Amino acid sequence: MENPAVSGTVKTREAASKAWANATFRGVEGLVLPSFRAGYDSIDEAGIRHDVRAGIAQGYFSLFSSTPGLERGEYRRLLEIVSDEARGRIATSAVVGAATEEMNRELLADAERAGCTHVLLTIRSGPASAEDLYAGYKRLIESTPLGIVLYAYRSAAFRALHPSGIPLDVFDRLADLPNVAAVKLTQTLDAATAFAFCRRLSDRILVGTADLGMLMVLAQTFPIRWTGQWLTDCVQSPEQRNVVDIVDSLANGRLDEALARYWQIAPAYERFAALQRPYLLRGAHPWNHMKYYQWCVGGNGGLLRPGPDVEPPPDADDKQSIQEAYRNAGISLRDRDDATFACGRAQSEAR
Questions:
Q1: What is the CATH classification number for the domain harbouring 105?
Q2: Helical H runs in the chain?
Q3: How confident is the model at residue 154 (pLDDT cuts 50, 70, 90)?
Q4: Considering only CA atoms, which of 304, 292, 305 is closest in space to residue 336?
């Protein structure tokens, strides 16, 4: 799926960016995690391509490539593989959130060269003043034609700029830039903060939260038609596109329909939220568990390369609990061969 702001098919960058965002950001953004070959010596291209096809089968409008266990060059290659497999069928995005402006410019260049359509931009603490923070990120955003999704999460370093711990005034000004398409609210934000973001920004850019319950509440007052990347695979499959259908119902005002579908999957959703919550509070994710979730509904699977940002694999009790959550939600599992999960479908089939 091509971004006209990058390709130059629309006369002005502002018109291209806003038209592309309005047409593209409808529904759910899925997740691609790395897959590795035996011994973790290199990434598994076949496994990654499998996960792109699995994401397309889930009905996602875009796929976000994440980084756990990867070195810089490997992440660049992951973006190339994902964008190549997705080209013409689905949008693709990358994460940009390094410590310096120079490093972020390099990451933006990697994403653009790979063929991504947009990036998730993490605003990290830096200058003490809101003006300096805004100026630095404005330079960065204006340096690329890629679509920008701002990422809202709390940081103690930002409490001097706003009581929420998020520099909301800075986000408000960045939302006016032509290629800023949306803002993603992380799962741990409270209702008042989510409301404040919608009230300030939803007239200019899309606001989406990774909290499914909060998404339902916000849709009563504000236009909601997308949700930024989170592991929606935990409550849906290609045959039962629960979150995709819920977001479509919310976008089209069918609120009772969305709520009825939500109750069907609420226990499974709450189980995943409970698993992830302690990780989120320390700025991490249960990556190997997330790979197992995806494998259960058709993803490649495969354990991630061990490292400080990767938790141990799910044990037998974890796997049984995840499988039970799917069954209770009426979601069929693809298979339960733990050996296949550990090495990944693509590597298993190649043997």
A1: 3.20.20.70
A2: 4-7, 13-24, 45-57, 72-86, 101-114, 130-142, 168-174, 191-201, 212-218, 242-251, 255-281, 287-296, 316-328, 338-343, 345-350
A3: confident
A4: 292
